[in-house]
Amino acid sequence: PHSVDFLRALPKCEHHLHIEGSLSPALLFRLAAHNAITLPSHAVDVAYASIEALEARYRSFTSLDDFLDYYNRASAVLITRADFEALAYEYMKKAHADGIVHAEISFDLQTHTARGVSIDDVVHGLNDGLNKGRTDFGISFRLIMCILRHLPVSSSVGHMHLAKPFFDAGLIFGLGMCSTEKSQPPTKFRPVFDLAREFGIGHLTAHAGEEGPADYVRQALEELGVHRIDHGVRSLEEDEVVDMLVKRETLLTVCPLSNVCLQVKPRLEDVPLRELLERGVRFSLNSDDPAYFGGYLLENYVQVQRAFDFAPSDWRTIVANGIEGSWMPDEQKEKLI
Ligand code: HPA
Ligand code: ZN
Predict the structure, then answer these.
(1) Which run of H or of E encompasses 283?
(2) What is the three-class DSSP state of 263?
(3) Cβ contacts of residue 240 below 8 Å, gap of 6+?
(4) How far is the CA of 149 from the centre of ligand 2 (A)?
(5) Which of 292, 296, 295, 297 has the alpha carbon at shortest distance from 69?
(6) What is the spatial distance between Cα 213 and Cα 208, in angstroms, rounded to a whole number?
(7) Which residues contact 12 (CB under 8 A, 6 or more apart)?
(8) Can you tell me which atom of ligand 1 is nearest the CA of 210?
(9) pLDDT tens digits for 69-103?
(10) What is the SS3 assignment for 234-260?
């Protein structure tokens, strides 16, 4: 019953978007040539034979870890402050075309410092592109630094200290946690989140309950003290966790196309959106890594509507919860709702 125009016109907020996940195969090849970076040879991985071959490989991920190999490798082509600016600005252009009014954008720091890129170039480059996008399109934004679970806790702690001046200056707004989930219980990273509180960082989130069990969502809430859960679709496996989410009014940042691409769920219809709505768990819809998962935010909305046929009142709830759960000033929320 709803046209794409109806979905485009909704005041959409995106809360779960990895800027590195907006690096398309076409941009990857362009930046590799520009920065004289050698992509893996045929002998290592035939997927890098051409843009088309890589696009095809991205349509056949078998798991989160299978995706993460490509995602982490692709970052090798991001070298200069201008590369990060271009990446961020390209996302803002796409966000504008999709009708996004507010974007909370994650970045990985550890991946980039490992190649010798400075935190200055990463954070200032991203802020350059995002500020330009705000000026040109009127989209507000927040930057979230995600620590990486596949690396030792000591690496995350070290990078928190490295990033502290940027948090203090308001150039980084929130802290998140991503990367591989199986066998990486949230409690392991408690020192990082304790340090965040010590630093006065008031906006905390973590990926949990994507491939990992519902208990990881509980741990993130109770032991890390996060205010939001990224993904969280496995929360429904434990009533106690659902109750906790409802009572705390925690927002889940659900990523429908991502869940299907990474085989977290077999089909879009299996992403438990209707059950979350019925049980009163707040969620927003997000693209996660749009260059890898077959669509930016509006495409997620369109495919969700095709699969679920939500009523206008359901869309009003989803969009209002997204605004309410955003890390934006109250005055801005009041104007949007
Ligand atoms: N899960 C975990 N780590 C990630 C993701 C994700 O969906 N996207 C980028 N890093
Ligand atoms: Zn994610």
Answers:
(1) strand 283-285
(2) coil
(3) 218
(4) 12
(5) 292
(6) 8
(7) 98, 99, 100, 101, 285, 297, 298, 301, 319, 322
(8) 1
(9) 999 999 999 999 999 999 999 999 999 999 999 99
(10) HHHHCHHHHHHHHHHCCEEEECHHHHH
- The alpha-helical segments, DSSP class H, found in 138-238 are 153-168, 190-198, 214-219
Q: What is the side-by-side order of every strand in the sheet holding 12-18?
A: 12-18, 100-108, 140-148, 174-178
Domain 4-23+84-336 in CATH 3.20.20.140: yes
The answer, yes or no, to whether ipTM is higher than 0.90 is yes
Q: At what angle do helices 51-58 and 25-34 cross, to 10 degrees?
A: 140
Q: In Å, how far from its chain's centre is CA 298?
A: 15
Pocket test for ligand 1, best of 258, 288, 292, 300 (most atoms within 8 A of CB): 288
Pairing of strands 140-148, 174-178: parallel
210 as an active site residue: the answer is yes
For residue 187, give both structure tokens.
């409690």
How does residue 226 score in pLDDT terms, banded at 50, 70 and 90? very high
pLDDT of residue 41: 86
The answer to whether residue 254 scores a pLDDT higher than 70 is: yes
Digit-coded pLDDT (tens) for 127-180:
999 999 999 999 999 999 999 999 999 999 999 999 999 999 999 999 999 999
The pLDDT tens digits for 178-187 are 999 999 999 9
What pTM, to 2 d.p., does this model score? 0.98
Distance CA 36, CA 168 (A): 35
- 209: region left, alpha or beta (phi > 0 left; psi from -120 to 50 alpha): left
**Atom number of ligand 1 nearest to Cα 181:** 2
Q: What's the helix, strand, coil split of the chain in %, to 5?
A: 60, 15, 30
